[in-house]
Amino acid sequence: MSIYENYLHEIRDSQGRLERVELDYPQDFNFAYDVVDRLACQSPDKTALVWCDTEGREAVFTFWDVARESARMANVFSAAGLKKGDRVMLVLKRHYEYWFAVIALHKLGVVAIPATHMLTTQDLTYRLQAAQVRGIVCTTHNAVPEKIREAVAQTGQEPLLWTVREDRAGFRNLTRELSAAPATMARVGTCVTDPMLLYFTSGTTGYPKGVIHDFSYPLAHIVTAKYWQGAEEDGLHFTVAETGWAKASWGKLYGQWLLGSAVMVYDFDNFDPKQLCAVIRRYGVTSFCAPPTVYRYLVRKGIEDMPTLRHASTAGEMLAPEVFRKFRERTGLSLREGYGQTETTLLMANLLADDPVEGSMGRPSPLYQIELRDKDGRPTPQGQIGEVVVVPRDGRKPVGIFSAYLDQPEQYARAWRDGAYHTGDSAYRDEQGHYWFHGRFDDIIKTGGYRVGPYEVENVLMEHPSVVECSVIGVPDPLRGQAIKAFVVLCQDTGPSPELEKEIKDFCNGRLAEYKWIRLVEFVREMPKTISGKIRKTELRGRLPHPCAH
Q1: Phi/psi at 269 (nearest 5 deg)?
Q2: What is the pLDDT of residues 118-142, one digit of tens each?
């Protein structure tokens, strides 16, 4: 029996179709002890992690290895004074030490704060102050130690500082300390409602919010891995995500290990589609998940043979139908879109039991009861746009939905109102029960009495051969209330001109309903983005009106 079966129960109808799943777990459930250490005892030689980098180095770790190294690391942290409830930031890129470190922190009941190496000194300063960080473990790459030193100096705090592998002034060398640490430890008592992870959101509309998940969070990702990504016992799942993002928790750790699948980690800085295909082929990856950007590159640069790949999934933004079609033509696999947030686990997806519908969010996860509601909290009928909300089935917070915003109880109360979690995302449901993303409520454009989701327009814009990147917003218009404006980044060999502006408008407006027509185009060299790569529409809205508005 796979270990996840101890916690997940399927409820099926009289025809055997899956209706919902329920999770059952003890109040002291701790992923580190009850999954990792248990697998290490039951199947010590079972592969947990396959790692390689761009320099040709590779390593394979069993669950026994992870259990042993995480215990050593926990002993190092404990000896340094870290204790249950403290907060430790992990800035480890795709280094395999991340897996040892995050499991070590879970064993101690210390809150892990995954963070990307792309953070600036200012970003780090904000997070150190907001979270009162007691320790930091970081890579020596990309000048991360130098930025951390500057940030620490600015805060006046004195967190414990470690690097891995190499020495840096002002930092302890965690790799060296591990060699002298004991490989066993007594279980530290934790409760399933204790804080376990702290992620900072991307801050699209303001300062990043700290999202706190408790020790039940890993169990909700059984659904992510089993019913959407296609991870399986003794398989090898590969999610392209750096460990600083919540997507790493979705696809590089919890659900996969609960299912008995190993995770593939490719440690790289600059994305190369051919190298990615080579990794999938060389190591026999069976399931793969990546953001739409990766798939766009794959279909443009050419997909090489990947014979072991059985499932492919994507999430994070809209994906053009052309990419779906080309990927299927070249691999025989249908891309399955999924939807969720940093605050949640998988909320909707084109699940493995269904035929995927291109461009759709799919259907609700069997773990959650999802409704679409209008601004007054009433359910919206089929075909009408409403906010995606998660409604508890039994009155309790569903497993996998965050437990708090860091020091922002008012924000948390706003998200959890009227007995449901409000995502702030809008969608509509079609006759077949598929959900279609419409946009963030903050981003929805109201023009001429109509509501337009920017993604609908952006999807068409991206089909123009001269457009590399785009973003659509609403700008004030005396006739329509708002006019639709497109910001466009052009291909390197294409320059802006009035003729091209007209060509792009004609191209798009010929493919859009009249109320969705683009009225304004502004060519820009690059888009303002958050550290996670999301376009800051708020900043675009703050720019001066286009002088050629008409």
Answers
A1: -105, -50
A2: 888 888 999 999 999 999 999 999 9
Task: Among 167-181, 443-457, 477-491, name the one with the lowest average pLDDT.
Answer: 443-457
Residue range(s) of every CATH 3.30.300.30 domain in the chain: 452-541
CATH code for the structural domain at 452-541: 3.30.300.30
What's the CA gap between 183 and 72, in Å, rounded?
5
Check whether 548 has a pLDDT greater than 50: no
Give the list of residues 6+ apart from residue 497 with CB closer than 8 angstroms, or none. none
Rounded Cα distance, 69 and 182, in Å? 9
Stated as kind and residue range, the H or E segment containing 150 is helix 144-155
Q: Is the pLDDT of residue 522 over 50?
A: yes
27-215 is classed in which CATH architecture?
3-Layer(aba) Sandwich (3.40)
User: Where in the sequence of the chain do the CATH 3.40.50.12780 domains occur?
Assistant: 27-215
Question: How many whole angstroms separate alpha carbon 10 and alpha carbon 41?
Answer: 27
The rounded percent of the chain whose pLDDT value lies above 90 is 79
Q: Angle, nearest 10°, between helix axes 273-283 and 292-301?
A: 100
Please spell the DSSP secondary structure of 420-476, one letter per residue: EEEEEEEEEE-TTS-EEEEEETTT-EEETTEEE-HHHHHHHHTTSTTEEEEEEEEEE
Residue 357 near residue 350, CB atoms below 8 Å:
yes
Q: Which residues contact 235 (CB under 8 A, 6 or more apart)?
A: 261, 262, 286, 287
HSE (CB half, 13 Å, CA atoms) of 1?
6
Q: Is 522 within 8 Å of 486 (Cβ atoms)?
A: yes
Structural tokens at position 404 = 């708090």
Q: Please tell me the predicted confidence (pLDDT) of residue 206.
A: 55
Between 52 and 316, the more confident residue is 52
Task: Classify burial at 81, counting beta carbons within 10 Å of its beta carbon; exposed 0-12, middle 13-18, buried 19 or more.
Answer: exposed
Please name the amino acid found at residue 56.
Answer: G
Which of 146-150, 164-168, 419-423, 450-454 comes out lowest in average pLDDT? 450-454
pLDDT grade, residue 549 (50/70/90)? very low
Give the integer Cα–Cα distance in Å for 179 and 472.
53
Residues 309/285, Cβ–Cβ less than 8 Å: yes
Residue 204 has pLDDT above 70, yes or no: no
Cα distances (Å, whole numbers) of residue 207 to 155, 200, 204, 211, 530:
17, 9, 8, 13, 11
Both tokens of residue 105? 């922190």
